Amino acid sequence: MNTLFDKIWDFHVVTKVEDGPTQLYIDRLYCHEVTSPQAFAGMRERGITCFRPEKIYCMPDHNTPTHDQDKPIEDLVSKTQVDT
């Protein structure tokens, strides 16, 4: 009997390499502000666009203050990433 995980996995399989990895179709992309900018910059440099940009969800989580949330973010890079 397949688990829920197995069913979801099987539904997203694009190709299986014998004795190797499985290529999956990922229908959602969740980004955060720390490493995603480098990935998007690399895509811009290579002239690559996003396949389905409406399926990309971004959220500021690493630069959002956990203390003194009522005060402005002091670090300019962090503030820019959260604001944009």
TrEMBL record:
InterPro entries: Acnase/IPM_dHydase_lsu_aba_1/3 (IPR015931), Acoase/IPM_deHydtase_lsu_aba (IPR001030), Aconitase_4Fe-4S_dom (IPR036008). One of its GO terms (molecular function) is metal ion binding. Its EC number is 4.2.1.33. Residues 61-84 are annotated as: Disordered. Residues 64-77 have a biased composition (Basic and acidic residues). Keywords: Iron, Iron-sulfur, Lyase, Metal-binding. It is an enzyme of class 4 (lyase). This is 3-isopropylmalate dehydratase large subunit. Residues 6-73 form the Aconitase/3-isopropylmalate dehydratase large subunit alpha/beta/alpha domain. It comes from termite gut metagenome. The keyword Iron-sulfur applies.
